[in-house]
Amino acid sequence: MSDKPQGQNIPFHLALTLLGIALIVFLGFHLRYNSQFLLQIAIFGVLAVTAEQWQIKLPRQGVVTVADAVYYACIIIFASPSEGSSLLSGAAKTAFVILLGTTLRRVLIRQKWYIVASNAAQAVVPFSIGALFYGYFAAGPLFFPPIESFSWNPSILIPYSTHIVRNLAILVMTAGFCFFLNSAVVSFGKAIQQGLSFGEVWYINNNTIKINMLMLSPLGLMMAVLYQIEPLSLLLLIPPLVVMYRSIKSYTDLLEEAKATIEALAAAVDKRNEYTFQHSEKVATLAADIGRELKLKEFEVEKIKSACRIHDLGKVSVPDRILKKPGPLTEEEFRTVKQHPSVGAEVSGHLTLCQDEAELIRYHHERYDGTGYPEGRAGEAIPLGSRIISVADAFDAMTKERPYRKSLGVEEALRRIEGGKGTQFDPKVVEAFTAVMKKQGTWKKPESDTAGRAS
C-alpha cells in the first residue's frame, strides 16, 4: 500500500478507520481486565505480532498473512460460550489482539498514522464482526464435554458428536464470513484507488480467500484446540509457523522467478535480431490499449500483456539463418517458422503462472478467415486475446525494418491492417485498434479499403 491514500480513495479509508475506531471504543467498554485477560493478550499478542511479519504476496496479486490464523483462533476461543464471558467481551478481546498485531510493527517502522489506522481497521472490522457471528450461533464450548474427558459411552458420544458437527459447521461459516468480508473491504478500497470495478479486483484477490479457507482456518482451529489443552502450548507453534511461512514464500518466489526467467528468455529472443529489439514490449503496450478500448476487464488486459511479452518465445527453436535471412523464405523454412507459436505455448504452458497465456500464444498467428496457423482456427474459435495480439504484432512488425524489407511506415501499416479486416483480422479488434490510433493522433483514413494485407 502506498504511503498516502490516492484521490477519491481518501474518503473510503477515512470512513473505514472511523468505523474501526467506533467498533473498538464500543467493544472496549465490555472488556474484563483481569489476570486471565492479561495472559490471553500476552500469548495471542506475541503470536499476532510475530505472524504479522510473515506476509506473502501471491503471484496473481493479493497478500496473505499468517496472522489471520491467529485472529481466527481468537474468535474460536474468546467468542466461545465456554469462556464464560459475554458475547461483546469475546469480540472485544479479539479486536484488542488484532489491534496489537496490526499496529505494533507499522508503528515501529514509522509508517504514516493513517496507513496504520486504515490497515488495522481492515482487519479489526471483519474479524470482530466474525467474533460476534460465531459467539451468537455457537452451541456452547467448542468441545463438550472437555476434550480430555471424552468417552466412547453412547450416552456421551452421540450428543458430543452432534455438538462438534454443529460447531464445526458454524466455524466454517464464520471463517468464510470473516475472510469474505476482509477480502471485500480490501478489494473495494483497491477498486476505488485504481479506478477499476469491484468485480475485477475481487477476481484478482480471490486466491487469498482460498488460501485462508484451506490453510489458515484449520491452523486457527488447531491453535484453539491446543489452547484448550494447555494455553502456553501455543508458543510451541511459532517454529512450525516459521517453517510453513518459509515453505509457502519459497514456493511463490519460485513461481515468480520462473516466470521472470521465461520473460527474460523471450526478451533474449527479441535481442537475437536487431530488428526485433523490444518488439514484445511494444506489442504488449499496444495490445493493452486495444483491450481497454474493447472494455475488457483489467485482469484480462494484464493476461494479454503478459502473453505478449512472451509471444515469440517459440522462436528460440528457429535458427538464426532463418530469422536473419535477407530474402524470402523457402517452403521448408516457413514450415519451421510456423512452429514457433506451438513451441512457445508448449514451453510456457509448463509454468503454472503462464498456463492462461499459453493458449493466447498458441493462436496468435491464426487468421480470422481460418487460413492461419497452427490449427487453421477461424472467427470466434480463436481466443479474443490472440486476435488482439495478432493486430498489435502485425502493426509493430510492419512499422519496423526487417532483414528482408524496409519499414512499411505507419500509413501503409494502417492501410494494411484496415484492408485485412474480416480476413486476417477480427473486424471489432481492428475498429478498437483504429480508435486507439485516433486517440494517439496516428490514424489517417486509408485511401483504399482493399489494400494489401499485413505480412
CATH architecture of the largest domain: Orthogonal Bundle
Domain module tally: 2
Strand order of the largest sheet: 1-2
Q: Strand-and-helix sequence, N→C?
A: HHEEHHHHHHHHHHHHHHH
Distance between the termini: 45 Å
Which structural class best describes the helix and strand composition? Answer: mainly alpha
**What is the 3D form?**
elongated
Mean pLDDT, to the nearest integer, reads 79
- Fraction in helix: 55-70%
Number of strands: 2
Q: Beta-strand level of the residues, as a percent range? A: under 5%
Look up the CATH topology of the largest domain.
Arp2/3 complex 21 kDa subunit ARPC3
Biggest sheet statistics = 2 strands, antiparallel
Low-confidence stretches: 1-8, 446-455
* Radius of gyration (Å): 29 Å
- Broad CATH class of the largest domain: Mainly Alpha
Output the number of helix runs. Answer: 17
List the helices and strands and how they pair.
Blueprint: H1 9-28, H2 35-51, E1 55-57, E2 63-65, H3 67-78, H4 87-108, H5 113-137, H6 154-194, H7 198-229, H8 238-271, H9 279-293, H10 298-309, H11 320-323, H12 331-337, H13 340-349, H14 355-362, H15 384-398, H16 410-419, H17 427-439
Helix pairs in contact: 1-5, 2-3, 2-4, 3-4, 3-5, 3-7, 4-5, 5-6, 6-7, 9-10, 9-15, 9-17, 10-14, 10-15, 13-14, 14-15, 15-16
